[in-house]
């Protein structure tokens, strides 16, 4: 028996197995980054309490998903889509470069639509509706709900 066939027998669900590893890595990274924040002190919660709890939960969920990949047969890994990764990275860069000059409304919509370019299966009518709803939610939450000082429109319009 070759080493690859032995490994294939050990990992029955590659998507779950490697997805669990990714979740555990994110949880471990978040736990590491929040290590110096003060936690629970008596009956009061410190600024590090919630990040620590979420990190541990993410680690445990990742371990559970990884275990499922070891015992339950699943589908193989797909080839990664470079188009999707590039469009999501471009949408993040676009958002960070344009948020101050174009405002939250135009930047959110442009970022959402740029990310949607990453899939050949995008249905543009639904994507436009989703971008409008998500932008409205962001405006309501961040500007009106949380009172963050985002400008909504471009500087020349507002």
Describe the structure.
It is a single chain. The protein has five helices and no strands. The protein has helices spanning 3-10, 14-33, 49-71, 82-116, 124-145. 12% of the residues are buried. The longest helix is centred in the middle third of the chain and has 35 residues, at 82-116. Helix 2 runs antiparallel to helix 3 (49-71). The chain is mainly α and 158 residues long. The protein folds into two domains: 3-71, no CATH class; 82-145, no CATH class.
Topology:
Elements lengths: L2 H8 L3 H20 L15 H23 L10 H35 L7 H22 L13
Would you kindly provide a brief summary of this structure?
This protein is mainly α. Helix content is 68%, strand content 0%.
List keywords for this structure.
158 residues, mainly alpha, 68% helix, disordered N terminus
Quaternary state of this entry equals single chain
What's the number of helices? 5
The number of domains is 2
Instruction: State the total count of DSSP E strands.
Output: 0
Ends: how far apart? Answer: 69 Å
Q: Beta-strand percentage? A: under 5%
Share of helix, binned:
55-70%
Shape: flat
Mean pLDDT: 89
Query: Could you give the order of the helices and strands?
Result: HHHHH
Structural class estimated from helices and strands: mainly alpha
How is the biggest beta sheet arranged? none
Spans where pLDDT lies below 50 across 5 or more residues: 1-7
Radius of gyration: 21 Å
């Amino acid at each position: 028996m070759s080493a690859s066939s032995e490994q294939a027998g050990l990992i029955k669900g590659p998507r779950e197995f490697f997805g669990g590893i990714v979740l555990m890595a994110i949880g471990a990274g978040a736990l590491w980054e929040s290590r110096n924040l003060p936690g629970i002190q008596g009956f009061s919660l410190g600024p590090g309490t919630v990040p620590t709890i979420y990190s541990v939960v993410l680690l445990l969920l990742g371990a559970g998903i990884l275990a499922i990949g070891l015992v339950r047969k699943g589908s193989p890994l797909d080839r990664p889509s470079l188009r999707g990764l590039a469009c999501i990275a471009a949408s993040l860069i676009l958002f960070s470069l344009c948020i101050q000059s174009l405002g939250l409304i135009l930047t959110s919509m442009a970022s959402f639509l740029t990310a949607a370019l990453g899939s050949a299966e995008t249905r543009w009518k639904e994507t436009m509706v989703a971008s409008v709803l998500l932008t409205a939610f962001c405006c309501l939450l961040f500007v009106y709900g949380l009172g963050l000082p985002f400008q909504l429109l471009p500087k020349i319009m507002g």
